[in-house]
Amino acid sequence: IAAGSRDFDIGKLVELCVAIQVMCAEDADAALAAVHLDRDGKYAVRHLIHSALLVELVTNRMGKPPVDRQRIIAATLTANVGMLELQEELVKQEGISPNQRREINRHPEEAVALLRQAGVRDELWLEIVMQHHERLDGNGYPRGLRGEEIDEGARIMAIADIYHAKISDRVHRVGMLPTDALRQVLLGQGYFIDPTLSEVFIKELGVFPPGAFVQLSNGDVAVVTHRGQEGVSPRVASILTPRG
């Protein structure tokens, strides 16, 4: 999918879904490091790919079959085809105009219409795209669905979407540290984020996910390279001593 274009090839999209699964299977820690360290290319594209990596890791941890995971990945990769141009604009500005808000609110429906036009017939894929901004408390859009009315795939995707947005830089702010973003995910439990799924998400990433920068007790700055057992005993590589 290219930012600034609504044209895409379904076959190539499926190949990308499989490639994401292969990458995560070969080295999940490297995939997570890419999510936290990669800042190349347009945000609108990078956000979808990184969110899809997170979705694959979490749904794999949940034991979902590969084909079912592919459908959620495909939905994640195409969720914003109705607002790619706008999304690239939003990361470069502070605040949202009324016209932009209206476009944001209707982008799930626009995305589904574009996907149907492109030949997508998988109703679960389309429903996840339609629901990915619904929230447990009913304050989401476009339908104002609540709780279990929202498909599980959409609830998983929403957590990945929110988390990646929080760790990403904007013109008016620096992205959150991963530990702070994970804390925000915890704070959102129950009223807009599924508490059970958020716990799975946090366990999969670990307290200090790969790619996160940390300061060690000896003063060294290090980058996390591996999550370690159950994400609570990470391995790090020291990159700077107090003496430089």
Task: Explain this structure.
A 3-stranded antiparallel β-sheet has the order 1-2-3. Helix content is 55%, strand content 6%. It is globular. The model is unreliable at 1-5 (pLDDT under 50). It is mainly α and 244 residues long. It contains 10 helices and 3 strands.
Q: Structural class given helices, strands, pairing? A: mainly alpha
Helix and strand string, N-terminal first? HHHHHHHHHHEEE
The rounded Rg comes to 18 Å
The largest β sheet comes out as:
3 strands, antiparallel
Strand order of the largest sheet: 1-2-3
Number of β-strand runs = 3
Mean pLDDT: 90
Number of helices: 10
Give a quick rundown of the structure.
The chain is 55% helix and 6% strand.
Spell out the key features of this protein.
mainly alpha; three-stranded antiparallel sheet; disordered N terminus
